Amino acid sequence: MNEDVTPPRISVVVPVRDDAPYLGLCLEALARQDVPPHEVLVIDNGTSRETALVARAAGATVVPEAMPGMAAAAARGYDAATGDLIARLDADSLPPMDWLREIRGAFAVDPALDAVTGRGVFADLSPARRLVASAGYHGVYYGFFGIALGQVPLHGSNFAMKRAVWEEVRGDVHRTDPGVHDDLDLTMRLGRTRRVRFEPRLAVAVSTRAISSIPRLGAALGRTGHTMRMNADRLRETRAGRLVGTGFGIGPLGRLVPKRLHP
Predict the structure, then answer these.
(1) What is the tens place of the pLDDT at every residue in 79-119?
(2) Which CATH number fits the domain that encloses residue 52?
(3) Of 27, 85, 140, 156, which is the most buried if we count CB atoms within 10 A?
(4) CA atoms within 13 A on the CB side of 189
């Protein structure tokens, strides 16, 4: 790599709502990065005063977003970012020391890359349960949705994109809809032509709370179905997507599926 080329500045966006304990640990991990971030933006989505205090004490910039929902908060953060790259974490993400270095390296190796994503490691499980949970969760997310969408899906707990790419799609995402999965929605608005890569070395620790109970899993599946229906135009672009869409009530055959059976 040409040493005269200025390395890209990386803005880190962390949307949060009442997650002070998790957020504090996340920000501590960011402070230990061997490549320092250009800025850390904590998007305050109607949090308690304690959460904002934790963010400011860690040196992060607090950006308020009154509209409820992760989609609105994440989009507000991407809009506010001033770096060349925008990296995304959730409040319960714990990135290793080399996380930002790996992100910078991915874009250096492949300048045509638009976005890169990686795994979330369920650190609060035993090794055996972690292996099973990760295989199931990531197998479905990256395998099933990757085939259906014809694109590598972004993982909201661990991804980065060029700011220029966000500026191209910012008007297309469903930012005002609190019922969508913002990462899946962004993936579908990126479309199949943009260059997105899964990087196995890009891994962060995450909690299992999203999959910790049947009600939580049910709620997540419901948001997935809603996100699919909001992006039906993208699903129709692939044969696998049209087939998957049927199960979510999309298309002529999908309309024959009773609504009570839709995810």
Answers:
(1) 999 999 999 999 999 999 999 999 999 999 999 999 999 99
(2) 3.90.550.10
(3) 85
(4) 22
Domain annotation covers residue 255: no
pLDDT value of position 156: 93
**Locate tokens 């990126």: which residue?**
190
Asked, for residue 258, whether it belongs to a domain, the answer is no
Residue 51: domain span:
10-246
Confidence check: pLDDT of 136 > 80: no
Q: What is the pLDDT of residues 172-182, one digit of tens each?
A: 999 999 999 99
Stretch (H or E) spanning 132 = helix 127-138
Q: Is 254 contained in some domain?
A: no
